[in-house]
Amino acid sequence: MSYDAILLASFGGPEGQDDVIPFLKNVTRGKGIPEERLEEVAVHYRHHGGVSPINEQNRELKVALEAELARQGIDLPVYWGNRNWNPYFTDALRELHAEGKRDVLAIVTSAYTSYSGVGQYREDFERALDDTGLRDEVRISRIREYFDHPGFVTPFVEGVRSALDEVADAANTHVMFVTHSIPTAAATESGPEFGEGGAYEAQHRAVAGAILDAVGTDVPHSLVYQSRSGSPATPWLEPDINDAISELTGVDSLVIVPIGFVSDHMEVLWDLDNEAMESATTNGMRAVRVPTPGIHPAYVSGLVDLLLERINDVPASERPHESPLGPWPDHPSQGAALESAMTKTQ
User: Fold this and answer.
1) Is the domain of 334 the same as that of 207?
2) To the nearest whole number, what is the mean pLDDT of the chain?
């Protein structure tokens, strides 16, 4: 495959108080979420001046990717587009098309298999190709899910090791691996062959195991969830991290590992650094939260490695992975191949 551009594809976030409610309406469009519920969530953003950290984090990641690509002598420009806020995917496609780019390889800032991390991005790309009228001229491919790629796992290994050193004087420590909760039905659909939690839960458990194996510890641990939303009548993956903290007994120190997230965006800052930390304090525990990968050098170089394995069509047997579940397979491309578009114009 020949590619001439990289697309950093992410969730997006508001960048001012006036953006908060319009952004949340974009996120929840078609889900029937009442206005009062949006106002409840808006408090999290307003606490930070109406600015989500995710856009600035993506700007930093884009710069880091450009630097790593240049260091490795790879001449591919990086564009950036979001699902829910400026710059949108349509903006990115129009920009790269205007600059003569036609074959795009996307990095999605979601490491796991789920509807929101895979299916919804695929729908977003389809919609953007249609809305821009570029379906016959631009092809979008994406790198595989990288939940157990060394570049994603290494920052967490370092973080857990550091956190355990920090609480080494504690008599009893528990490690909580945490990710975003999703509806149980959606989790199952992500890979029914893995059981009720689907591939989504199986991948997180595999990553947690890989991290602990690399650290070389048998400290008690669990997988918990955060940021549940939607109807209370709809089953979601459990337990919630705050409920799980309150049920721990005989624990002096808690290490919180946000393995479901690639950067310290709003749900990490609010749900973990605010609510979960408060729960730990209330229950008499000392808590340390491990950093997300962000722009850790291993993560950035790992993303470039993932780009290269797709560009060079590296066989699955040669693709690195830190768990028995990997490497996850590639996704099919979307839009027209450049050759097809050229044929139509002749």
Assistant:
1) no
2) 94
